[in-house]
Design a protein that fits this description.
CATH architecture: 3-Layer(aba) Sandwich
Number of domains: 1
Strand order of the largest sheet: 2-1-3-4-5
Shape: globular
Helix content: 25-40%
Structural class: alpha/beta
Distance between the termini: 33 Å
Order of helices and strands: HHEHEHEHEHEH
Radius of gyration: 19 Å
Largest sheet: 5 strands, parallel
CATH class: Alpha Beta
Number of strands: 5
Strand content: 5-15%
Bound molecules: flavin mononucleotide
């Protein structure tokens, strides 16, 4: 997790840029991985007419994009991903919404910072998605103090991701997604994690669609 001092130093370097929208020039995109779902090797032999007739096309995977967005940067990325995948969308919401004061990061005692400082914190969800119908789940969130908000930990401990294909994405001022991804993979080790990607706020839909395509889900 990025240290408080490190985060402020970073913010200082960046001047007065608003935290909610900033992105460091020259920063990497924070890819932790982008491995593809496995696909059967194509055979060069033509199928016999009987084989072709009996082969049924694989059913399209059912996909959910679930997103928490406290200040609105991650949500449009999530919506673009859902659109590109023809997926359902679920808004991850805390039972107690975050106020502007809760998100004020210059004071250790404010809610979001206090939650991030205690790795055991599990804020309650307003509702839990029913993942039973889905093969693939994409989880989106902001980076808070170098990690996923603890609300995402609550989510991962509230649902069964065993056997499901999962990818993670985030927006941040500049921090990568690597540490957040490592923590989430630990919380749901029986999921098949296929990628994690950090986007800058305001990333165009086409770029989101490119990442989604690189996951080779369908
Ligand atoms: C409490 C708090 C902590 C944050 N910590 C970081 C951080 O460690 N690194 C970073 O690059 N951005 C950090 N940010 C900025 C957010 O990650 C960024 O603005 C993100 O795009 C917000 O997404 P959202 O609008 O979907 O909530 C922090 C923001 C808040 C409110």
């Amino acid at each position: 997790m990025i240290s408080r001092r490190g985060f402020f130093k970073l913010m200082g370097v960046m001047g007065a840029t608003a935290l909610a929208g900033l992105a460091l020039p020259g920063c990497g995109n924070g890819n932790a991985s982008s491995s593809s779902a496995s696909s059967a090797a194509a055979s060069s032999a033509s199928p016999s007419p009987s084989a072709a007739a009996s082969a049924s096309p694989a059913a399209a995977p059912r996909i959910l994009v679930a997103c928490f967005s406290a200040t609105g940067n991650t949500r449009p990325i999530a919506k673009a991903a859902a659109q590109a995948l023809d997926a359902d969308y679920f808004e991850i919401e805390p039972a107690e919404p975050y106020t502007d004061a809760d998100l004020y990061y210059s004071d250790d005692s404010t809610r979001a910072t206090a939650e991030q400082n205690n790795p055991e914190t599990r804020p309650a969800l307003a509702s839990t998605p029913d993942l039973g119908a889905y093969d693939v789940v994409l989880i989106g969130h902001p980076i808070w103090w170098g990690m996923a908000p603890r609300l995402i930990c609550t989510l991962l401990e509230s649902v069964d991701l065993a056997g499901k294909t999962v990818a993670e994405f985030c927006t941040s001022g500049s921090s990568g997604i690597e540490e957040a991804n490592a923590e989430l993979m630990e919380l749901a080790p029986s999921a098949r994690w296929i990628g994690a990607h950090r986007f800058a706020a305001g990333t165009p839909d086409e770029e989101v669609a490119e990442w989604v395509a690189s996951l080779a889900i369908g």
